[in-house]
């Protein structure tokens, strides 16, 4: 893969971004720190993190498109809604899920355009105008984490240097993602922010607790374990909460809280100016 937009990032220059990721482990700001590191290191335009835990369902843990933020939510919704079964890497993910407790090294897979069904390619690549993708498959103790990095036409495809840099970063990325999303900080150690409290106000106490766990980086399975409830019960709480909030996915829930936080910040800034 060649590109005219060659990355020239030096390793010492990446150290502050790496340190910020470590400092933000288990905190709400981890997603932003991870995105900053990936943008600086390999110039990504879009990033998705999914979790597979053995059921025929997928959790979206992070969805971000720098050029079109709302598009990332829509793409995550399409993928988790069923298109994940058409992913060329899906059979490998199923194989890794079957190896319970096996924590192997991260696997890097460049884009497999020829193996994509037409509908998958149309909805997830042609529609958002993305032309290249690199995936990192990260087996964990309870889930297989799936980091997907994308570029559009402006940035161009990933170069050999980009892939080499990503390969060198893979052990760090695997450790960060496993620790943050599999061992996210318990809700009891961090209260809901005012913005989160306002968004989650219509929910029952159990629905609110579940949503807070999801916002802190937990998968549905690990949230159920923290709440000491059956996975099926957690699924019911999630379904009810999303229906009340008018969101179809975790990515939309996160985006809703972010938009509310931004709006509140602008309001406070406006009030201070007057």
From TrEMBL:
GO terms for biological process: regulation of DNA-templated transcription. Transmembrane segments: none annotated. SUPFAM superfamilies: C-terminal effector domain of the bipartite response regulators. Pfam families: GerE (PF00196). Residues 196-261 form the HTH luxR-type domain. Signal peptide: none annotated. One of its GO terms (molecular function) is DNA binding. It comes from the Bacteria. Keywords: DNA-binding, Transcription, Transcription regulation. PANTHER family: DNA-BINDING TRANSCRIPTIONAL ACTIVATOR DEVR_DOSR (PTHR44688). This is LuxR family transcriptional regulator. It comes from Billgrantia tianxiuensis. The lineage of its organism: Bacteria, Pseudomonadati, Pseudomonadota, Gammaproteobacteria, Oceanospirillales.
């Amino acid at each position: 893969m060649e590109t005219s937009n060659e990355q020239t990032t030096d390793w010492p220059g990446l150290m502050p971004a790496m340190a910020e990721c470590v400092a933000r482990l288990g905190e709400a700001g981890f997603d932003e720190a991870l995105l900053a590191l990936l943008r600086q290191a390999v110039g990504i335009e879009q990033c998705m993190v999914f979790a597979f835990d053995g059921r025929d369902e997928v959790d979206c843990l992070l969805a971000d498109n720098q050029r079109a933020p709302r598009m990332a939510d829509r793409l995550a919704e399409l993928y988790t809604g069923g298109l994940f079964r058409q992913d060329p890497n899906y059979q490998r993910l199923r194989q890794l899920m079957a190896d319970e407790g096996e924590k192997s090294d991260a696997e890097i897979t460049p884009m497999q355009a020829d193996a994509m069904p037409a509908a998958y390619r149309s909805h997830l690549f042609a529609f958002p105008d993305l032309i290249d993708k690199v995936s990192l498959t990260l087996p964990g103790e309870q889930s297989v984490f799936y980091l997907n990095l994308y570029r559009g036409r402006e940035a161009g495809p990933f170069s050999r240097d980009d892939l080499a840099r990503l390969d060198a970063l893979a052990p760090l990325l695997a450790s960060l993602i496993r620790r943050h999303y599999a061992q996210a900080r318990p809700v009891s150690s961090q209260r809901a922010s005012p913005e989160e409290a306002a968004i989650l106000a219509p929910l029952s106490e159990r629905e609110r607790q579940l949503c807070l766990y999801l916002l802190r980086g937990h998968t549905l399975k690990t949230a159920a374990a923290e709440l000491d409830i059956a996975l099926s019960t957690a699924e019911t709480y999630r379904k009810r909460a999303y229906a009340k909030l008018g969101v179809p996915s975790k990515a939309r829930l996160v985006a809703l809280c972010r938009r509310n936080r931004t709006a509140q910040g602008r309001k406070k800034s406006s009030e201070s100016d007057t």
